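Technical annex B. To support the medicinal chemistry partners, we prepared a structural model of the target in complex with pyridoxal-5'-phosphate, based solely on the information shown next.
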Amino acid sequence: MAYSDKVIDHYTNPRNVGTLDKAKKSVGTGLVGAPECGDVMRLQIEVDENQVITDAKFKTFGCGSAIASSSLATEWLKGKTVDEALAIDNMAIVEELALPPVKIHCSVLAEDAIKTAINDYRVKNGLPELEMPKSHH
Amino acid sequence: MLTLPIYLDNNATTPLDPRVLEAMMPYMTNMFGNAASRNHAFGWQAEEAVDYAREQIASLINCSPKEIIFTSGATESDNLALKGVFEMYASKGNHIITLTTEHKAVLDPCKHIEKMGGKVTYLQVDEKGLIDLKELEEAITDKTILISVMYANNEIGVIQPIREISAIAKKRGILFFTDATQAVGKIPVDVEADGIDLMAFSAHKMYGPKGVGALYVRRKNPRVKVTAQMDGGGHERGMRSGTLNVPGIVGLGKAAEIAKQDMEADTKRIAAMRDRLERELTTIEESYVNGSTEHRLPHVSNISFKYVEGEGLMMGVKDLAVSSGSACTSASLEPSYVLKALGLSDDLAHSSLRFGLSRFTTDEEIDYAIDHVKEAVAKLRELSPLWEMFKEGIDLNSIEWAEH
Ligand SMILES: Cc1ncc(COP(=O)(O)O)c(C=O)c1O
Ligand code: FES
């Protein structure tokens, strides 16, 4: 299968690879997927007092499309408010990266990672947990 | 001079040897006759060429030319052997014994046979990929008509103890079939010494053309017959109808002749390169060779690089044509069933690459491959949350992974 130029670009030059201090109250961590399934994504956000995401980092074990999806997600997250981030839909990632149907689940994983990270942040800061969308993996 | 990408997927298919192409050319141009045309020179020429190819092949595997049935490839040969024996020997029994690690071209006909009322036992292999001979003996019943065990595995290259298996089959009066697609032309295969009754193989895995293969069917001690799976003009002693693929057969014959002549020298060179590749790549931390390294084809190496995912890795080594046991590369989203049969955990199966060398592989290509893989693994581990956890000493099994 041929990869789109955008997937290749994110794979070759992944944006925002790294780790934030998960002990910090302002950091939300989302770890999704499972090694047995061949994909694990960890996405982290750092949120300021105005509910704006000031930093986002990822690490992903998975195929090129999964790496590209999480790299793109971190780009999109930075500068957004938490509420705006919640609205990110996996199909927008599919469109931006021109993912073929068999790779849609890689984008679903990215959406799950965003929502899980936001929930982690919310719980840490005494906010009620949001209902998670069912993973369609 | 290095040309990229480098082809290291020779268990999927091999390039056509120029000597083979040269032998085939006349039969793709002026010598186009039908080998079954008995009444003119075009037909005689074609028949002669086919007969010669039969001799070349017979000489490679030590059988009589009359025992070769030409087919369209190993998939057809596997189908013909399994279904053909099942039908032909229905009065003797309906039980077949095979391995879980067989190629789909064996497993799927077996499933078909089960639907037709047959019984199939799928034996497990050990962590090296080898059959347990005691389990084989115990699986035999008075209804067993066939033991089907591949000569060498296509994913890990593991060679089964063929002589021990055939001895058990013979002792119990059961036929022995082997899918030798990965072995013929690569290692010495001798149907007499090995005690083989039926054997499938294919030209395109031994530097011949695609779409042609053969089934060896023993004619003496015992005389074996298979029910044709394709009805028609009664070619190939009635076991496989259809106008013979003369240029393809000529190619298979030539490939067999070259294999016999060059095998020793080729093997020495290829095995040295494979060993060097494997030695270098296993200096990478947390890398593991899959399957037996003792009983193995000389040109294959299957390695898992823990904490990186195979398809992501293949994308990283884009200048190498290799394959992976990762689910992400398969339509089913399941990792390799062969690697899982060795008892590999799913994550290790996902992290595997298969390197398959050929007689055209060069030392320079191997040098390049070593550097390229090392770089890609290092880069992907930087990206891998699992690698980070491993380095922090976190037990990955202690984490509750999201179910999906
Ligand atoms: C062990 C084995 N059996 C059968 C086949 C099928 O061969 P063919 O492509 O000639 O049908 C292959 C090749 O993929 C193989 O490796
Ligand atoms: S992570 Fe498996 S296909 Fe993308």
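Notes passed to the chemistry partners:
The radius of gyration of chain A is 14 Å.
DSSP finds five helices and three strands in chain A.
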